[in-house]
User: What shape does this take?
Amino acid sequence: MRLALFSIVLLVCSVYVTQGFEDTTLEDDDFAEFEQFDADDDDVAITDQEYGEDDVPVKPKSQPKEPVPSNVEPEDELLVEDEDNEFEHFQDPEEFEGFQDTAPKSSEQPKITISKVPVVIRPRWDAYWLEGILCCLLTTYALAYAIGRAKNTSIAANFLKLHKPLLEDNFTLVGETGLEEVGRSEERGWSRDAEHCFTMWCSGRQCCEGMLLTLKLIKRQDLVHVLLNAVRPSQDTLQLRVELGKDDSDPFVLCIAQKKVATRLSKEMQDLSMFCPERRPGDKHGLPATLSVMSECAEATGGILDSRVTAALHQYHKYVQYIHVSDKYCGPKQVEEQTVTKPPETEKLVLVSLTLGPDGGGDEVRPLLLLVFYLLDKIKRLRLSKEALVKCEKRRQKAAEVWMRGAHAARQELAAQKREEKRKQEKEKILAEDDPEKQRRWELKEQKRQQKRKAPKMKQLKVKAM
Assistant: This one.
């Protein structure tokens, strides 16, 4: 009896405890969604993977479903997500809001028209016209270089073939070991300095220390220069530089040149501008009118221009650019910006420039070379009178004094610049210090120096008492 009462009391207490912990806010319809999922799970068919091929799947008995009301819209129906479909968000209308409103209403797909392009098998050369022009220009330049170089080489070889016997008759040594394209390697001939410039040294003759021949031809290997030469024609030239000994000539300066060339030389050459400031026409000396004469001493001009020289110049004056004889040759004038501290070094030279014919030096060169050799012998034998020598020496002393004064002025200018730089450095150093007394003393010292510099210089004379 006691056991039955105890069981009844325990059952009542458990009922009260269960009601106390129960959530009264939940309603019966809150779990209706989960009940629908449970009902759908019961309807899932058993696949062939769970049973064999011979086994017949048995459909479980499902409870009858409640009918769905007709007034429920499709949007309110529950959507079951498929995890395997990763592009399902493209089908969601809420993902692209407003897109369907802006899209065109016509459901027709745009038509794509594919044009038929013909297949070109052959290359179109007209598309490479620029490259073709460049290739043609390069080929033309290369051909011009080869042809011009060969032409200049043949002119130099022809000149050496025609006039080397004359040079060997007057000099012991003619030329250096030549190149293969100019002459045979065992012979002596031209030395190629450039594609258009050849030089040859000759020595071993009286009345001179040696002679340097420079053959300057047209730059036929350069296509651009060839085109410019067609506009402004130029000619091949032969330049002779003869070095005289100390006792091979008296001191004088003489130049015979074409009029245009004489004007240019008088402005550029230092010795001509200093010793021969006057240019006289060639008519007054029995020369053609196209030539001009610049001479320091009239006696030297009369001694050089004898009948033989005058006749040769009358006949070949168009091939002679200039004949320059000088014992104080120092080259072109120095630039004014350059500081001259000492007189330039001078040489005794005979400079001759000849113009060659179209064939690069033919029959006209030999008489002119003979004229140069005759002038060397004439200069060696020429002796000026005492009066002429005295005048020439005075001019040279005066020129030396001008050079010395110029050098002294240049040295003074350099010294003044150094003093000025030193004074600036001292001033900057004083101003950088914080001692005002030291700055004041330096300013007083500078004022006294300026006053002493501006004061007139007085010379004090002492008079002896009677």
